[in-house]
Specification:
This protein is of the alpha+beta class and 500 residues long. It contains eleven helices and 22 strands. It folds into three domains: 86 residues, Phosphorylase Kinase, domain 1; 171 residues, Transferase(Phosphotransferase), domain 1 (Orthogonal Bundle), CATH 1.10.510; 216 residues, paralog of FGE (formylglycine-generating enzyme). The strands form seven sheets. Strands 1-2-3-4-6-5 form a six-stranded antiparallel sheet, covered by helices on one side.
Length: 500
């Protein structure tokens, strides 16, 4: 630890250790005091103030990134003689650390890792983001096999050669990390070879890499045989459809499955409905805010869980009854768009059928006690009004979290919540479930984004989700679209201290 900066702070950040120092920027390991989380802080050398415009341009470019596999920018601070930004301290060891430790991965795991790396880079491609070089030090893998990639976005436009540069470098770098003589070793090494340009007529792209890895994942968990090369050796002038084997095999499997289904229809059983936990009381008092300040709040009760499919079904049934007397808009919030005529979530029929039959939806087990998703801000507000409640403010949501969790970053990130249960690890000591994972949640009021201090206030989506774990309970997103719907976006409600 560097003692020369003992107890030095940059705003809300206590500097712990100098990690990297260049003539322009010093990178610190720091602690964001208000929320007790480790972060990285990049500080511009005060003697290089003339470079602040370029420094800030890169920060703005990084702050525009919103992808679950890419590191997050938290806050930028610009003062007269101080210029720095805080960003995510990615968990786990880098692939470079694992290479030096001579660690290897089974081919099916490497296929998953490489697919996620490809997805992050496809995001950059689709948004035209310029990026610095991707290398093994940029790729982090935590103890739960979750891949996160350092935010490499920089100011400027993306050039056509950036993807080719990173694909070839990654294909070379990962070759020693694949376990030898395992099922799938030849297949994943073939993909890495194609990434390096070996045995192909023209370079492959990140979409090709993603497709190949998806095939390998499927093949290594099923009866499929070897992966096809992207270019047939007998016909190098044309790319052969890589999915042909999968399509043919899939058709055969579908026929077998159909015969089995006709012979013995599956039996489904309704999901059991367990009692839901009571709301949690948050007493009046002073609480830290998500932005590192402190505010006083009146007492309130917050739902111990996100609104469930079963609860939302009761709400829709009530609206259907009201519709018989043309009162279905009784609880609609002011300003709701006139073209919005229904509060049914996206894909509601399929979601409800799966929940009632204890089945699956989008590959995940669903019950009536799973969180309702595919709802926009207007839907959440209408439901809350029907329940004589409201959505929480981000200050209330965060106060409920901090009431019994001193360091929110330590709260285990939960996956998709198939049912409200006391066995989920994503649970505060007070019994509030799903704040770090499950689904992200709509918040009542708009707020400014700290990474864009001069920007307008936008609607806040808070908490991690099974699709966007990001920073778990410390995750926040901002959107101007109150009609946004996603399969990992729901809500919970708050009410007065005394139950209705």
């Amino acid at each position: 630890m560097d003692a020369s900066h003992e107890e030095r702070r940059l705003g809300d950040y206590l500097l712990i250790e100098r990690l990297v120092e260049t003539p322009l920027i010093t990178t610190w390991l720091a602690e964001q005091v208000s929320v007790g989380r480790r972060v990285l802080v990049d500080e511009l050398d005060p003697q290089r103030a003339s470079r602040s415009a370029a420094f800030l341009a890169d920060i703005r470019a990084k702050a525009a990134v919103d992808h679950p596999h890419v590191g997050t920018v938290y806050e930028a601070v610009i003062e007269r003689d101080l210029c720095f930004y805080a960003h995510e301290f990615l968990p786990g060891a880098t692939f470079e650390d694992r290479r030096l430790a001579e660690e290897t991965f089974l081919p099916e795991k490497m296929a998953v890792f490489l697919r996620r790396i490809a997805e992050a880079n496809l995001y950059h491609e689709s948004h035209g983001f310029a990026t610095s070089h991707l290398n093994l030090d940029s790729i982090h893998l935590d103890d739960h096999n979750v891949i996160r990639v350092k935010n490499l976005v920089i100011a400027g436009g993306r050039t056509p050669d950036q993807s080719l540069r990173d694909i070839r470098k990654t294909g070379e770098a990962l070759r020693t990390l694949v376990a030898l003589d395992q099922p799938g070793t030849t297949r994943i090494q073939s993909v890495l070879g194609w990434m390096r340009g070996e045995g192909v007529v023209e370079p492959i792209g990140w979409q090709d890499v993603k497709t190949f890895c998806e095939q390998i994942e499927e093949q290594l968990t099923g009866p499929l045989s070897n992966i096809s090369a992207p270019y047939g050796k007998q016909d190098l002038a044309k790319r052969k459809p890589i999915l042909m084997i999968s399509v043919i095999t899939g058709a055969a499997l579908a026929a077998i499955a159909f015969i089995a289904f006709k012979t013995k229809p599956p039996v489904t059983h309704p999901a059991a409905r367990l009692p839901l936990p009571d709301p949690v009381l948050v007493p009046e008092g002073a609480y830290p805010t998500p932005d590192g300040e402190e505010g006083t709040l009146r007492a309130f009760r917050i739902s111990a869980h996100e609104t469930t499919i079963g609860e939302y079904l009761e709400f829709l049934d009530a609206l259907n009854i009201l519709a018989k007397s043309d009162r279905e808009k009784l609880f609609d919030p002011q300003g709701q768009p006139a073209e919005k005529t229904s509060h049914e979530p996206d894909d509601w029929a399929a979601l409800l059928a799966a929940a009632k039959g204890n089945g699956t939806w989008k590959g995940r087990k669903v019950t009536l006690q799973s969180p309702v998703v595919g709802v926009d801000w207007w839907d959440a507000m209408t439901y809350a009004e029907w329940k004589r409640a409201r959505l929480p403010t981000q200050e209330e949501w965060f106060a409920a979290l901090r009431k019994s969790v001193p360091k929110p970053a330590a709260l285990p990130i939960g996956n998709w919540l198939s049912a409200v249960t006391d066995k989920t690890p994503d649970r505060t000591p007070d019994g509030i479930i799903g704040m770090a994972g499950s689904v992200s949640e709509w918040i009542l009021r708009p707020a400014p984004d700290p990474s864009n201090p001069l920007g307008e206030s936008l609607r806040v989506i808070i908490g991690g989700s099974y699709l966007k774990p990001a920073q778990g309970a410390l995750s926040r997103e901002w959107t101007a679209d109150r009609s946004l719907r996603r399969p990992d976006l729901g809500f919970r409600i708050v009410s007065d201290p005394e139950p209705n």
